[in-house]
Design a protein that fits this description.
heterodimer, A: 509 residues, mainly alpha, 23 helices, 2 strands, globular, B: 332 residues, alpha/beta, D-Maltodextrin-Binding Protein, domain 2, ten-stranded mixed sheet, 10 strands, 20% strand, disordered N terminus
Chain lengths: 509, 332
């Protein structure tokens, strides 16, 4: 493999230094709700434009990888996800923390994230051109059905309370329609308020529904008690082989979901985690405790959100189409350094692009070590008394939301979503369902409306005539089957057996 | 006891300071303004084209002003969360250390009655025009159906052309609306999308026939031989793409649309302070080092001020009024 020679290019003092800074900044900024990789990377553009391009880009891709992983810290420890890509980890992760298993959760998250990032990095290195072609296959009809597939996750995240989960999902979809409609430029549900014209952004929604709602929930308990219910934490941060073997299939499913979703522009980590999570719940076996700190669920969500990172750079490097906001900012940096994405980048400047890709792979590797050290310190927040933790989380929620957009309206939206999330959690109306509606509503709506435009009178024929749509529709059917059917079926079998047993008993008498 | 001796001292110093302040000349001299960091407010989120350009610009403007220039993002409402602050809340005294980026034709969404905006062009205290990017139509490089604009017009007279014009009211959309006014038989279907990346993906993936966009972002795709330029929406051939014909020269019908960025400040700001900003912006935009960065960034700089700038703004408004996309009945 000719690209191997560029591995050595990474190992210079300045490249490794940039990588180290990127990892530390990413971990910290990712962990704080509101501050995320896109903003950190944007701030790095003017700082690094005098640097050699590969060093500047290594700084940015390291920040990106570490930022997605850093978001999981606060998601697991506090149920306050630092980025929208780690919201799903807040469910099982925090349930584990509550049961005094914070370190166990962190080490599974670290293993899943580091390995997910590495696999994704190697996919970026070796499969970039063919995977870039896949990303082009996604048009209106594919986006519409992929959003529907994501919405089937509502069944999984409502943990049995399906009706309430669906109500939550519908509320999310309704919220997603707020703002100026892109197809008619008519303001919907804006009530003449400036802050509602651009709709409800995902970030204030995530922070509100999870982090701020969590702070409100913490206010309910005794101010002196802590959230983990234990007073000492385990120090063993290195993953145990037994845990990995226990979660091996969950990890695989998470990584695969991440790799695939990364290639689809605009879907990315915030959708992948939910698909991976609902897949996991559907595959659940007897004895699995989803919703109550099931490590398999965490392994899948954590594997998927970092599995996205490498492959989401593929359409950006190969086609100039960034898959997400972070990739868009990195694209900007690339251009400012006089590099143009596309075939020419690989042909004319292989020394730069392959050095950056190897830098990304190494960053994922080192991220594990740095994170392991940092995690021990961070895990101590779970020993803080609630009376201290709740106001700190609230402050970070407000500051982070404001910092992300500079828009004071977003802070109020975040607080409103926080109250909604708190009530939803309390009365068992899945907050995750609301979030899924908000994230996927616009993708589904734009996809469907564009399908109606291009297909003329026959939208269904149009959707079914596209093979990727057909595959996704098949996955939706399977997902729905596993979400609803087995329980009824199992019950029928059980009833049948019970009836049989009763009949046998009767016969005996 | 030392309390009594200290208080008069402090009070005396305070009175003296007030006295100095009171006797200071009312007008500010160019030398002591700006006296603290200047905030440059971008109306979109970090990572977009406007954000990228003004983060590049900030260090050069800072060099000219002698104080740090901090880029802040106030996003939302298609820019109106920021512009609402600029026009309605910014105070010439309190907010004299603030500058705002105003995007053309984005602000003309104020003409759409559904938006219920009270602002007009005169609500803004424009300082200078910063950059300019003309409209461009593109097809796939290997799309045999469309050799030139005439092929597109002929095709669209028979079958609706599927176009990705970004969002409604964008300059890209206005350009297509103009073409439809000029050629009533020009049938289109719009696939709406968010941003240039989505448009490139739609076109390369053969989900649409044509993209209406601006030159800057697409130079790379053209050099990569992935997308082929069809026509530029500029009065004369555009210097970045000299061999690409203009819509006007091909059809004889005027169709000039562009995306532009301007810089505004608080209403009623003293002329002296205004002059300080304007001078600094002019010198920063013409700084060769900054110009080189923007060449790499594919952003065409265009400095205009005073009457030239206002003529450009008014012409832009006229174009938006004529296109009046919100009146189109066929908008789905």
């Amino acid at each position: 493999m000719e690209s191997f020679e560029f591995l050595l290019n990474v190992i210079t003092l300045q490249n490794l230094g940039a990588m180290f800074v990127g990892i530390v900044v990413g971990l910290i900024i990712g962990a704080i709700p509101g501050l995320g990789p896109p903003m950190a990377i944007a701030l790095m553009i003017p700082i690094s434009f005098e640097w050699p391009p590969e060093t500047a880009l290594i700084l940015m891709v390291s920040t990106y990888a570490a930022g997605i992983y850093g978001g999981s810290f606060t998601a697991i420890l506090l149920r306050a996800p630092g980025t929208s890509a780690s919201a799903a980890s807040a469910i099982e992760g925090y349930e584990m923390t509550k049961r005094g298993r914070a370190i166990e959760a962190i080490r599974m998250s670290t293993f899943a994230s580091v390995m997910g990032g590495l696999i994704s990095g190697f996919a970026l290195l070796y499969l970039a051109p063919p995977l870039a072609k896949v990303s082009l296959l996604f048009g209106p009809s594919e986006y519409f059905v992929v959003a529907l597939l994501g919405l089937t996750a509502i069944a999984a995240v409502s943990f049995g309370a399906v009706l309430k989960g669906l109500i939550a999902g519908l509320l999310g979809l309704l919220i997603s329609t707020i703002g100026v409609d892109s197809a008619s430029s008519f303001p919907r549900f804006a009530f003449g308020l400036d802050g509602l014209y651009s709709g409800i952004d995902i970030l204030p929604a995530v922070i509100g529904l999870f982090a701020f709602a969590q702070a409100l929930t913490l206010c309910e308990g005794s101010p002196k008690s802590n959230i983990s219910g234990v007073s000492k934490l385990s120090w063993n941060i290195w993953p145990k082989l037994s845990e990995i073997i226990h979660c091996r299939w969950s990890l695989m499913r998470g990584w695969v979901t991440g790799l695939v979703m990364g290639v689809i522009p605009a879907a990315g980590g915030s959708v992948a985690q939910w698909i991976a999570y609902s897949w996991e719940i559907q595959r659940g076996k007897e004895g699995d405790k989803f919703g109550e700190g099931e490590i398999k669920g965490l392994a899948a969500t954590e594997g998927s959100n970092n599995g996205v990172t490498g492959t989401s750079l593929i359409p950006m490097f190969v086609l100039g189409i960034p898959g997400g906001i972070s990739a868009a900012v990195i694209l900007g940096a690339l251009m400012i350094h006089g590099l143009q994405p596309g075939d020419r980048l690989f042909r004319d400047s292989p020394e730069i692009i392959f050095t950056v890709i190897w830098g990304f792979i190494l960053a994922n590797f080192f991220m594990g070590g740095i994170a392991a050290t940092l995690a021990r310190v961070m895990a101590y927040v779970t020993l803080f008394p609630r009376g201290l933790l709740a106001p700190i989380i609230m402050i970070f929620c407000v500051v982070g939301t404001f910092a992300a957009s500079g828009n004071p309206w977003d802070v109020w939206i975040m607080v409103a979503m926080g109250v909604i999330g708190y009530l939803a959690q309390k009365y068992n109306f899945s907050p995750a369902g609301i979030l899924l509606g908000i994230i996927l509503g616009p993708i589904a709506e734009d996809g469907l409306r564009n399908v109606l435009v291009v297909s003329g009178d026959s939208p269904f024929t149009f959707i079914f005539s596209r093979w990727i749509s057909d595959i996704i529709i098949f996955m939706i059917v399977v997902a729905l089957y596993y979400s609803f059917k087995p329980k009824a079926w199992d019950k029928a079998v059980e009833d049948g057996e019970a009836a049989l047993a009763a009949a046998e008993e009767k016969k005996d008498h | 006891m030392f309390k009594f001796t200290k208080i008069p001292l402090i009070a005396g110093a305070a009175i003296a300071a007030l006295g100095i302040a009171a006797t200071a000349p009312k007008s500010v001299s160019a030398a002591d303004f700006p006296s603290k960091p200047v905030q440059l407010q971008v109306p979109f989120k970090p990572g977009g084209g406007a954000d990228r350009t003004f983060r590049l610009f900030a260090p050069y403007l800072s060099e000219e002003l002698g104080v740090p220039v901090k880029v802040t993002n106030v996003a939302g409402g298609g820019g109106w969360v920021s512009w609402g602050q600029v026009t309605n809340n910014w105070n010439k005294k309190k907010d004299d250390h603030k500058l705002a980026v105003v995007n053309i034709p984005h602000i003309f969404s104020m003409l759409n009655p559904a938006m219920k905006r009270k602002e007009t062009l005169e609500s803004f205290n424009f300082l200078a025009w910063h950059s300019y990017d003309p409209g461009l139509w593109l097809v796939r490089w290997d799309d045999e159906r469309f050799k030139n604009l005439q092929d597109i017009l002929d095709y669209a007279a028979k079958t609706p052309l599927i176009v990705a014009p970004g969002s409604l009211g964008s300059d890209d959309h206005i350009g297509v609306a103009f073409a439809q006014q000029a050629f009533p038989e020009f049938q289109t279907k719009f696939v709406m999308s968010k941003g240039d990346n989505a448009k490139i993906q739609l076109l390369l993936g053969k989900h649409v026939d044509m993209v209406a966009a601006n030159v800057g972002y697409y130079i790379n795709s053209i050099l990569e031989r992935k997308l082929r330029p069809i026509a530029v929406m500029h009065p004369e051939p555009w210097k970045m793409l000299p061999s690409v014909p203009t819509f006007t020269e091909l059809t004889g019908k005027t169709n000039v649309t562009y995306a532009g960025r301007t810089i505004a400040t608080a209403n009623g700001l003293e002329e002296e302070k205004r002059a300080v900003y304007l001078g600094a912006i002019e010198r920063a935009i013409t700084n060769p080092e900054y110009m080189a960065k923007e060449v790499a960034n594919k952003n065409h700089l265009m400095f205009l001020k005073g009457e030239d700038m206002w003529n450009m703004l008014r012409a832009g408004q006229k174009v938006a009024e004529q296109a009046a996309y919100w009146k189109q009945k066929d908008v789905q």
